[in-house]
Write a structure and sequence with these properties.
Blueprint lengths: L2 H7 L13 H13 L8 E7 L21 E7 L4 H20 L3 E5 L19 E9 L7 H10 L7 H4 E3 L1 E5 L7 H8 L10 E6 L2 E6 L6 H18 L4 E4 L11 E8 L5
Parallel strand pairs: 5-7
Antiparallel strand pairs: 1-2, 2-4, 3-4, 5-6, 7-8, 8-10, 9-10
Helix pairs in contact: 1-3, 3-7, 6-7
The structure holds flavin mononucleotide (FMN).
């Protein structure tokens, strides 16, 4: 499975096969976590906790009945006062999620429905880094489960906003053309997971530069933005559109949106 297929196939899994993951799989997940990087800075950290590890051999975290059978979780920590740290944590963790999907594992981000006290590996986080999200990972069970259907219906998880509501060219009332080179990476951003499926990401393309905005602030908006930006950069890389994220001093910003960052294609000078 390549990156594009993984992003298109991924959906949140809430019902897992309760057998522990093989050591080899845990080793791979740890490798993905250690490789994960972010260009956005801030204080953030990831950790892996599973049944039988050194933190708590009887690890059995509470998720208010939302997740069934998962024995392995990533812990996502970041400085709650810093939006760059939230962008970074979302960006880095989503890289692991996409790689886990390529290994045919299921995942589910949790921002609300988990009991922090069970995730003891977070005690090793640095100062100012707080456990704010976790991601369940494992083999999906054969049946997706009632709770999963309920959560998916409540969040409208199968749907995404149309491209015409999210991505624009030159100005926020001009639709992004079907042939535009950024369309593919932006489509992959569109399929990213977000809290309550809120899809806060918006983008305006200016030739070789793409400006990104959030249509929502607070709570998990910047984690969601980090997740979407990782899908975008994986898609851009896949399409041979190499470049880097850089925040500009100021860009024209539509009412109700907040400017987050820009992606500059290599060799392009603003
Ligand atoms: C930051 C974040 C937090 C989330 N928190 C929860 C949660 O607390 N409980 C839950 O059941 N799903 C949670 N989700 C999953 C979303 O509801 C899901 O990603 C969205 O509805 C889109 O569905 P999909 O992931 O199947 O594409 C969260 C997702 C993200 C990205």
């Amino acid at each position: 499975m390549n990156v594009k297929e993984a992003i298109e196939k991924r959906k949140s899994v809430r019902n897992y096969d309760s057998r522990p993951l093989p050591d080899e799989t845990i080793g791979k997940l740890r490798e993905f976590m250690e490789e994960a990087e972010s260009p956005f800075g801030g204080k953030w950290q990831l950790a892996l906790q599973y049944e039988g590890d050194e933190f708590d051999p009887s690890f059995s975290p509470g998720t208010y009945g939302v997740i069934h059978g998962a024995k392995t979780y990533f812990l996502v920590g970041h400085d709650p006062e810093d939006i760059n740290a939230a962008l970074s944590a979302g960006y880095a963790m989503e890289d692991v999620v996409v790689k886990a999907t390529m290994m045919k594992l299921g995942t589910c981000w949790l921002g609300g429905t988990f009991r922090k006290s069970a995730f003891t590996a977070a005690e090793n986080f640095e100062e100012d880094v707080k456990l704010l999200e976790v991601v369940a990972v494992g083999q999906a069970a054969k049946r997706s489960g009632m709770m999963n259907s309920l959560m998916r219906t409540m969040a409208g998880s199968s749907r995404r906003k149309p491209v015409e509501e999210l991505f624009f060219e030159t100005q926020p009332c001009r639709y992004l053309g079907v042939g535009n080179r950024w369309r593919r990476p932006l489509e992959l951003m569109r399929w990213a997971p977000s809290s309550n499926n809120s899809q806060p990401w918006r983008a305006i393309v200016h030739g070789d530069r793409v400006d990104f905005f959030t249509a929502r602030e607070g709570d998990m908006a910047y984690i969601d933005m980090g997740i979407g930006l990782r899908h975008f950069s994986l898609g851009a890389n896949d399409a041979g559109l190499h470049g880097e994220f850089r925040k500009m001093e100021s860009v024209p910003t539509p009412d109700d949106w907040v400017y987050v960052t820009s992606f500059f294609r290599d060799g392009y000078d603003d």
